Amino acid sequence: MSLTSEIPATVHNPNGSEFSSPEPETSVKSQGFHRERGKCPKDKGGTTPTRSGIPAVSVRNAYKSFPRPDLPPVEAIDDISLDVRLGEFVVIVGPSGCGKSTLLNIIAGLIQPDIGSVCLQGNGEAERIGRVAYMHQIDLLLPWRNVLSNATLGLEIAGVPRHDADAKATELAKRFGIADFLNAYPATLSGGMRQRVALLRAVLPDRDVLLLDEPFKALDAITRAELQRWLSDVLDRTNRATVMVTHDVEEALMLGDRILVMSPRPGRILLELDVDLPRPRPPDVVREPNFVELKWQLLSALSGEWVR
Amino acid sequence: MGSMSALPQTDDHIANENAAAPSRRSTGSVLKKLKTYVQNWGAAILIALFGLLLWELSVSLFDVQEWLLPPVSQILSELIADPFLFIENGWVTLREILVGFMVSATFGFVMATGMFWSRLLERSVYPFLIASQTVPVFTLAPLLVIWTGTGMTPKVVIVVLFTFFPITIGLMTGLRSVDPDMIAMFRTLGASKWQMFTKLHLPSALPYLFAGLKVAAVVSVIGAVIGEWIGASAGLGWLIKTSGSRYQTDKVFAAIFTLSVMASMMFILISLMQTRMLRHYHQSDSEGATN
Questions:
Q1: What is the mean pLDDT of chain A?
Q2: B287 closest CB neighbour out of A143, A154, A190
Q3: Cβ contact (<8 Å) for B188 and A133?
Q4: Are A129 and B181 within 8 A, CB to CB?
């Protein structure tokens, strides 16, 4: 609406060093987004391209760079906009170091974009930290806690009584396939098991938004394939907006409803693709013509950017 | 020497405990445990025995004067002849050590957590903590005797001067060296700063704290002895000094032996606590790829 909406909403630098955000003109260059610049989508109809009301997450023209001593700043992401509705599983695919994790960190509220804004349920003002579930590449389990009390950490922090938290975790642990390990300590678990616990910890506090940052990256190929299938079974997607980041095109197609392809640094969105494969997707879905075609589109979008 | 043989190989010990994780108590596991102990301690004990034997033999072989270097057997018989002398004086020294240790642990905890929470406190206090370690404590001892008399107080103060530093620095380092990814994870779970302190920083700092406590345990004995050296009427340090001036070398050695046993016991006690409390800390690094 007004011009003021293009001024960076928040310029926050957690390192505390001097850093001024770049001039708005320099980064507000790529055009073609039909969305309103830097504004939270309001539930008034018309302006927002959503099927069902306000998107759970919407990122508007996010730009982020990181200062380096004696060097020009690294531009991590540039002009990224993205809407994710409840019940939707969006996968962001991109080469390593394209700012995918930066984007997730921004959505989670761990860092703030230099330019642009992030809205949860149409609210761009409220603190995002603590309202978004986030699962990292590495499990980050606390070695001094057993599986059960690792899993209930989020509930414990939220002040849920111990008994209720344990009951809730035990219930879900059955579906997660870790019910037999609740008293085990992380050091005795395999990498795949640890990631299951980490996901359980992330989803237990019942947040609307779940961010997955290459959750299977540290695992071997067999375990990864197993956990991909497990994840699509175990995640109740109906009440949650999920954003996963990966560099694995097949993983994206196995899990995603919609896939965004990101360019190398600074990360921009190159391609947006709806995955119209039926669920559940069995392992042999990879042979279906539809899958092959989508995979080819994704790969050419990625490699086209690499060649350039 | 005695103190060498008493140093346990803690890390191996912990690793072995972990390897036999869910152990059922049976004769087999008891034997296994015994075997582990022999593996961990056997070599050191053998070396100690060999050294003592060499000592004993060379004293009689080269006909060394007793007041220069008494044979091991005589030191032992000195210990056996009047055990209460060493127990009583040992108790005096041990009390000084324990009180000093407690004061240090409390002070160290308050200081380290204070500096963790307040950069201002760190900036204003840290230089003085360092400075306090550059002062040779031995030179302070006479002053302390002048100020606080020859009772327990100056010894405790010297023990504190020796021990608070490793405890404080250990805990502070531990509180500061938490994986930033872990902090990010706690933040996304909505943890307050206090929750993060109690549930993340403090447990993460325990291994560092124990490293500091172990160093403190060993040097605390030195502190107490220095305190007794300057002015005391009891204690192992006092016993060593008075016996030395009377050329009662066997008593000196017996007291030194008692001291090193005491220091080793403190060290072992803390190691056992560490093994118990940090049972699960040792991750198998094979899987946990850090990236």
A1: 80
A2: A190
A3: yes
A4: no
Which tokens in the block code for residue A244?
A: 């996963």
Per-residue pLDDT tens over the stretch B115-147: 999 989 989 988 988 888 888 888 888 888 888
Calculate what percentage of chain A has a pLDDT beyond 90: 32
pLDDT (tens digit per residue) in A82-126: 999 888 899 999 888 788 889 999 999 999 999 988 988 878 777
Going by C-alpha positions, the residue among A83, A45, A114 that lies closest to residue A209 is A83
Complex ipTM: 0.80
**pLDDT (mean) for B268-284:** 83
* Partner A, chain B 174-233, Cβ-Cβ below 8 Å: 179, 181-182, 184-192, 195, 199-200, 203, 206
With a cut of 60, say whether residue A17 has pLDDT above it: no
Q: What is the SS3 string spanning A28-56?
A: CCCCCCCCCCCCCCCCCCCCCCCCCCCCC
Find the angle CA(A21)-CA(A96)-CA(A71) to the nearest 5 degrees.
40
The span from the CA of A70 to the CA of A264, in Å, is 23
Q: Tell me how far apart the alpha carbons of residues B228 and B150 are, in angstroms, rounded to a whole number.
A: 8
Average pLDDT of the segment spanning B171-197: 93
Average pLDDT over residues B271-290: 68
Compute the nearest-CA separation of B19 from chain A (Å).
10
Compute CA distances A28 → A36, A59, A77, A104, B40, whole Å: 13, 15, 12, 21, 67
Task: Please work out, in degrees rounded to the nearest 5, the angle formed at the alpha carbon of residue A121 by the alpha carbons of A117 and A123.
Answer: 50
**A178 within 8 A of A102, measured Cβ to Cβ:** no
Nearest CA in chain A to B183: A140
Residue A213 · residue A101 · CB < 8 Å: yes
Say whether pTM exceeds 0.90: no
CA angle (B56, B61, B64) in 5-degree steps: 80
Nearest CA in chain B to A96: B291
What is the least distance, in Å, from the CA of A226 to any CA of chain B? 17
